[in-house]
Specification:
Layout lengths: L2 H32 L7 E6 L2 H11 L6 H4 L4 E7 L2 H12 L4 E8 L12 E11 L2 E13 H17 L5 H23 L1 H31 L2 H17 L2 H23 L1
Parallel strand pairs: 2-5
Antiparallel strand pairs: 1-2, 3-4, 4-5
Helix pairs in contact: 5-6, 7-8, 7-9, 8-9
């Protein structure tokens, strides 16, 4: 097939990957902005290379005409989560979205692959607007934990290096590493609540500090400079104490002061 024709085929897939990466990243941002926990840690996307598509065609006896129907991962999205529980949260989130429709799902976490590979796979129908109008295409979404991703990335590059001839000794070590990753994910799940509490406290503090700094900055424009500097010193003092309740009290008081100035400037 000519390179120009490949470009034409792959272009909508590039658009789909770009759009979905933006959409899932937006979910992370939206959660962070309101200080709620984001089940998604990282999102990556890629369009399969032409050589990789051809390799798969050869391996599975797929003709050129069948490529778009039979190769489900031309567009691939990878969603990385911190905890196993988050994976199922993301799966539900995807099932309930209006902009995609689930075609199939494979749970390689409950049914671990022979290689030791674990991940949750979803193939979805997704529509992009191309120059020729709307086009519905397939996108594969792989959802895994950070630990699963670490293992899969290393195993994938070793598979690529050794093709079908991975030395027995290496293969054994990879299986052992896969077992260790299962234990690691289980350990993380058992301390999930504690980790989430700590992260939550961190987010609350970060949002509060951002609010305070914006308020102080705005006060510089309307209030007496010496008074604002006093407020700023007070903020640094409380911040250095590290007491979240005190910081919260200070934030509320600052809100009242700022509100007073706002009312004054309007009146
Ligand atoms: P890429 O882009 O190089 O990652 P098949 O595609 O024939 O393997 P199937 O049923 O079409 O099988 O798809 P499957 O097994 O559900 O998922 C395919 C993709 O999952 C693979 O894509 C990998 O990304 C990932 N995967 C599946 N098994 C393993 C494994 O044992 N180790 C690792 N590291 N990844 C795996 P491709 O085709 O390899 O493409």
């Amino acid at each position: 097939m000519e390179i120009q024709l490949w470009r034409e085929i792959l272009e909508p897939y590039t658009l789909a990957v770009d759009e979905l990466v933006v959409k899932f990243n937006h979910l992370i941002e939206a959660n962070r902005r309101v200080g709620t926990y984001a089940p998604i840690e990282q999102v990556m996307g890629r369009v399969k290379t032409i050589s990789s598509i051809l390799e798969k065609c050869q391996k599975k006896g797929i003709s050129m005409k069948e490529i778009e129907d039979k190769i489900e991962d031309i567009a691939g999205i990878r969603i990385v989560c911190q905890f196993i529980e988050d994976i199922y949260h993301v799966v539900n989130l995807i099932r309930n979205r209006q902009d995609m429709k689930v075609k199939s799902e494979k749970d390689y976490i409950k049914s671990i692959k022979e290689s030791g590979y674990r991940s949750y796979h979803m193939v979805v129908y997704y529509t992009v607007e191309s120059l020729k109008g709307p086009k519905e295409l397939l996108v594969e979404i792989q959802i895994r934990t950070l630990a699963m991703n670490f293992w899969a990335t290393i195993e994938h590059s070793l598979q690529y290096k050794y093709k079908r001839n991975m030395p027995e000794r290496l293969s054994e070590r990879l299986h052992k590493a896969a077992d260790a990753i299962v234990v690691l994910d289980e350990e993380m799940a058992s301390v999930r609540d504690e980790i989430l509490d700590a992260q939550n406290a961190f987010n609350i503090k970060a949002n509060m500090v951002a609010d305070i700094l914006i308020n102080i900055q705005n006060l510089y424009g309307v209030a007496n400079k010496r008074e604002v500097m006093k407020i700023q010193d007070e903020f640094f003092r409380i911040y250095n104490q590290g007491d979240l309740d005190e910081l919260s009290k200070f934030n509320r008081e600052l809100d009242v002061i700022s509100e007073g100035y706002r009312a004054q400037s309007l009146g």
